Amino acid sequence: MACDFDGTLAPIVDDPATAVPHRAALAALLLLADLPRTVVVVISGRSRDDLEDRIGEHGAVGLVGSHGAEGPNTGLVLTPAEHEQLEMLCEQLEELAARFPGAFVEVKPLSVAFHVRRVGVDDEEAALGLALERAAALPEVFVKLGKKVAEFLLVETDKGTAIELARRASGATTCVFLGDDVTDEAGFAALGECDVGVKVGAEATLAEHSVDHVDDVAAILAELASLRTGVIGEAPFELIERHSLLSDLEALALVQSDGRITWMGAPSADSPALFSQLLGTEAHGYFDISPIGAVGTPVQSYEPETMILVTRWPGLSVTDCLTLSDLPTPGSVLLRRVEGTDPAHVRFVPRPDYARATAEVTCGGETATLSTDVADLRLSVRGGSFEVEDGPGGLMVVATLDPSSGPIDVVLEMAPAGELAPTPSDLGAELETTRAWWRAWSAKLELPSVATESVRRSALILKSLCHRSTGTIMAAATTSLPEDIRGTRNWDYRMCWPRDGSMAATALVRLGMVEEAEQFIAWMSLRVSELGGPEEMRPVYPLRGDRGIPEEEIPSLPGYRGSAPVRIGNGADEQVQMDVFGPIVALIDAMVERDCELTEEIWWLVSQMVEAVSRRWDQPDHGIWEERRPIRHHVHSKVMCWETVDRAISLAKRSGRPLGDGWLDLREKIRDDVLAQGWDPDVGAFTMAYGEGDLDAAVLHLGISGLLDPHDERFVSTVEKIESALRVGPTVYRYAIDDGFRESEGGFFICAAWLAQSYWRIGRIEEGTKLFEDYLALEGPTGLIAEQYDPYLRVALGNVPQAYSHIGLIDLALTVESRGIYLR
Predict the structure, then answer these.
(1) Per-domain boundaries in the chain
(2) Among 4, 6, 248, 680, the one annotated catalytic
(3) 216-220, 393-397, 419-423 — which is least confidently predicted?
(4) pLDDT of 74 higher than 60
(5) The domain defined by 2-232 carries CATH number 3.40.50.1000
(6) What angle do CA 36, 39, 41 make, to 5 degrees?
């Protein structure tokens, strides 16, 4: 798989120094490079060092510069005489460039290029002609003409030769080559009958296929990666969206579609991971129960109305749950019931503390035990016996089970160090109790008639992210699942953001579930009561207590598909985010609508939130997206400050409580400020921050919150601008700015939900409904939704399951129900 850079992997720009690869095209290229028996090479006129600066160091991608002269299979260098000749030609071309405004010279290790892209149209031909005359006067200079550029080389090479060298070195039998320039025609000429050439652009070409744009290149590479994966078999990683979740409201586990547990903290969700294959390889720990021998593709589903997961093969099934009852005990119990006619392997590969510690396992018959710095664990089986063997990265516990005579239970018990209780005597009863617990909870849900099962599953997942012993709600179950494959946008979400938690609790309240909201508000009140002032509230908290959560990297884990670094903790802990107050008061407002009592304690919390806004609303912050850049006056943050006061006023009126001093004036002052400074008439939209022209999907809350009438032409225009700039197919990006990270990311599910809501509010019913249908279509096989979606690679990105994404689904379904919108 070979391709050019400029005009193929990266859009053409006036200044070559500013060129960057198309994010989706590069991601698809890296996906191809991950596959066995697949060689990926980028061949460009740029220098190899320049390519590395723009693409990065990816060992699986070969970089060939200077039209083939600089590469792993070449190594051409200039003689002293050739260096002198190159310097002479550079001087002459610099003098010539000075005569033609816009012309510039680019010096490379083996050549020099004369660019006329920025020269006036009338002078382009004259400038190139004079450059060619200068070169013709020098001996042994090889000319390559491209689009608005002439390149002069001191060594003879071309992209066709580079392709042949790469093919010969790798033993590849087939080549696909994509290019756009005149210099790429040598590459197309080198292709044979079994090869494929694709020209980007409408010019005459030797390639048998052509497309219009770099966007098309991204689509081709993504489709090729998908087809190639199908030919050579499954890729050596599980797609993010194909995972399932187990929860007992204390611990969480991620399960692959083949039933293998590849992520779990012990003894609780935010504890150091015991299994970390999700962020590395088998050597980093997993827990597998599977049939012996090749028996076909497994089918996986949840038992209805529960978080009990069943993975089935033709002759075997494994039923998984973290057990639950109304009488919680310290620690967690993972129950794995094996049933069927075929024998099964058990492979228990513990790698404590994110694979940084050695697992010391004591094994005896039906039981294996181990201890970590934070937990004691016991693995037991009735109807089998354990042995210890060498496994990937260390020891593993194994067993062979024969369930043909009846079900066999494999049980992993986990508790804080020193608190491990005796194994339950009746594990069958534990499974039934867990089933009854989840079904009793599900039975209380007030579900819409549209997307009913999707909403039920989303509610179950939000409940699973609730922390039973404290009332906190996690943003997601995982850490460091990447927002860009092989990128560095890898964050830990196993903690509680007051904003995210309030939104999750509000979604559950709208479905008739208030207990979670009451517990969350009680936790929130405790946190605020411990502050010097409500404005000191932090953006994110641990699941227990109020300790800091500093961010650190875990070098023992290479990351999902090589996306390093893996991080624990979160640097947002130290940020300023002023949008946190609004969702808390909005949650209380939703609770009161559900006839919850507005107690003195809760009213105190409302007043504290308004007090925080009164002290902070006119200050800059880091915003909802937690940009790691200098603070700014974010429009969304101001809107949430307005919502804080607006909902507090509403609550006061409904409850008969007196309004706080200046609340009405404060609400109007914030609104006037947002409308005056957030609107950019040149852009034709409300923008991300005051005085800046960047778009931000979060400003759609202007119309969603009620600060601005959705039919106001400024909001309608904002919706249209965001649609044009940030929507790609079924997804919507947060923004399109340089936020301090080199790589990009996927579109956010929650942003797509906000855009669909905005479509409905401005009267574009069909567009909103279609976007909601697209949203539903992107659920994982068992209903989990990750944080983001890549519309080019057509895969999920980011941590999973993500509370935001399930909140968006619930909100959309309830809106469809309330508005009587027809859903196909």
Answers:
(1) 2-232, 240-443, 454-819
(2) 4
(3) 419-423
(4) no
(5) yes
(6) 150
